[in-house]
Amino acid sequence: MTTSESAGVVFDGSGLGEWTDEERFSVTAERIAEYAAATNDPIAAHLSGEIAPPVFAVVPVFTSMAPAALSVAPVELLMKLVHGEQDFLFHRPIRAGDELVVRAKPIGYVGRPNGSTVVVYAETRDATGELVNEQWMTAFFRKVDAGPGEGEPAPAHRITDEDRAADPVAKVDAHVDQDQTFRYSPASGDPMPIHLDDEIARMAGLPGIINHGLCTMAFTSWAALTELADGDTARLRRLAVRFAKPVLPGQDITTTFWSTESDDPGVRAYAFETEAAGQIAITDGRVEIN
Question: How would you label 107-137 residue by residue, b for 16+ Cβ within 10 Å and e otherwise?
């Protein structure tokens, strides 16, 4: 067994590459429509339940992600876990009627003095075995140093000063409703109390209830689709972010997109950031459009 230890905390590398048990998920139009409404999505095909919003892709794999991360990090660190980054690679949209098969595995971890990360890779296939999407979730364990680590990092999606220096191609304003977290929680299947209980959120060192990071990411996904892809979900190839600061219910957010370099001549790429109350809440955003 390979381990890394710092200040009495042991991360176990023997779990790297080990898949979780497969889970099955039946996609209904009602569940899609509920998710779209819970993220203030304006796209008609999402609201009708025909095609799932891009970030809905996390819903089928949600219960696989934490167990995969905690097969490397000690389970007693669960309360120190926050969602650091999320990266989706879409092969096709999820549609009502899909029968999905999902699984996840940890692929790498690394420690730093301010916190350690575990990268989890997940794949979603349909009933025929066709790959629907791939995901990389970076779990960040606050104030825990796991040492040098091992395995693979998540794919890069860093924004650059050169990106920011260019004229934006689009800016999208949105409002996070006071009841946003109470709608998003059942729609997504995420019951974390820091999004629902003000007292627990304050005990965790937060200013109060915070919006789910993936809910804020969902706002950026429909902003990208409406402004950059004519509202066509099937054109979205990749969506990646790093969560920098929490967004609070009742805040206004602004997402700014810039053109950036693409490795594929057939794909247009954009960098983006999302600001709330004068602070960058989402950074290192990347969108790729076919």
Answer: bbbbbeeebbbbbbbbbbbbeeeeebbbbbb
